[in-house]
Every structure is written in C-alpha cells, then in structure tokens.
Amino acid sequence: MSYKVLVLIKPTEEQPALERASEFARxxxxxxxxxxxxIRNCPADQVEATRESTERELKAMLDRYPSITKxxxxxxxxxxxxxxxxxxxxxxxxxxxxxxxxxxKRNTLRDLFVAPIDSQIMRKxxxxxxVVKDPxxxxxxxxxxxxxxxxxxxxxxKFIDEVLFTAAxxxxxxxxGEVHVLNCVPPIHRGMMAGNTKxxxxxxxxxxxxxxxxxxxxxxxxxxKHNVPHERCHVAEGRVDEMIPRVCSKLExxxxxxxxxxKNGVLSAIDQSASELVLEQIKGDIFIVNRHVHYDPQEQ
Length: 300
Prior knowledge:
Low-confidence stretches: 190-205, 264-270
Largest sheet: 10 strands, mixed
Strand order of the largest sheet: 3-2-1-4-5-10-9-6-7-8
Number of helices: 9
Shape: elongated
CATH topology of the largest domain: Rossmann fold
Helix content: 25-40%
Structural class: alpha/beta
Strand content: 15-25%
Mean pLDDT: 81
Number of domains: 2
C-alpha cells in the first residue's frame, strides 16, 4: 500500500523531518515523499533563477537519502510558511497521509508573543503531523510508543482515538515496539463547568467509584477493544503536560501520540498548548491529530 508524506524543508543544513522520512522509507519501500520548501522575501525578478537553484539543492539533498526512492519537490514563494504549508497539505488532489516537520528551538521571551512555526502547524494543519526533535537521538528498537488519551466525556473525540491508535500501531510494527496506552486524569477545576465530575455507580455495585476508577474502566475497555494487554495500560492523575513526559521518561518511550480537542470552547486553547508543552519535555517524536483532521470514508 502506498503512503504519501509531506515534509517541510528547513532553510538550514539540518533536516530532522527529512531524516525521519528516510528512516520510514527503509521499512516502507512505497513511501512517497514530497519535499516542501517555502522561500520568503524573494525579489520578483529573481524568482525563476531562485526556483531553479532551489530545485537543484532539493534534489541534491534527496539524493543523500537513498532509501527514499519516490520523491518530488514543491517550491512556494510566500511570506507565511505556516499558511502555505497548511494550504498545500489540505489539497485533496495530493492525497497526503501524513505531514512531517522539524521541531523549532524555543526562545521563551519571543514565544510569549509569536508561536514557533511547529506550534502553529500543529494547531492548524489538516493532516496528522509528526514533529521530529532529534532524529539522531539514541533510540533502540523495541521502545514504547505511548498513546496518550483523556477519556473525559466533555472533551473526548473517539475518531481521534482511532486515528491515534492506528498510527501508534504502525509505528510500533515498523520499529518492533509496543503500544502503551496512557489515560491522563486531569485535575478538577472547581471554578469551571467541565462536565459531570461526581463519582459514578456501576450497575450492581453500591459503592461510588473515584474519578481514577472511572478513567481506568474506560481505559481497559479501550484496551480490550484493541487487544492491548492491561500491563501496558497506565492511569496518571495530574496535568497532561506534566504526566505524559513523566510516563514517557519511565518507559523510555520512542514517541508519544496524542490529540487535541475538537471543541471550540474555553478548554480548546489549553488542550492545544498542552501538546506543545509535552513536545518541549520529551526526548522522542510527537504525533499529533488536531481538530482539523477529518475522516472521509469515500476517500479510502
């Protein structure tokens, strides 16, 4: 089965996203890679010459990755990298399956006012996106692939769960790893109306269940549905951006797969920023499915 990925090329020598795509190509010979390069601030009279020189540079760059046997280059002249990349990613004629981008280095002061390119793409792109921090970091085969899910009913999108599990399984198969499912139980904010947080009763059981018990039950139901052993299931109570890195560190995880809320309410911004905070703290890659990703059965 063919698989098509859109890779954002950085204007530097280091190309973590392309490195990861080449690694995938070793396991997936039919992988098709589209190298996407945005050129900003180019004078109108130099566009054609710049296009030709950039095409040569991209082809030379791709030649350094012999595992990538199917590739093409797409060059765009624009001021906004994020807008250009996200617009091309949703082109239905291209049939992209995945976007791969490189993580940006954080500058705390500047990031208070302008979100890094990777953060903006994570929020806006209409494809599942893999963010690569360091393709050369020590990563053994057999490492955990952590699937992080919040089963809170008021904030839960089951479609995203299925996309994430499918992706986590593919990554685990190709890297001889194991899928671990982490259910984060967020702290209760008493001042916010975030759904029903009262203890629930299970039919036939007169003892109320704690929130952790309720989340554990949802986690095990999900695990049983997808044939994930219970010993690979984890419940962590606390902030998402604190607990996911902690569990990933304990498991020495290769990557984490997580989604952002499909809701447009007050919690959505918190959910989206949590994935960016997780990215800053984990050592591996992060795979994101946001609220703009949609499934169309007719396209399958």
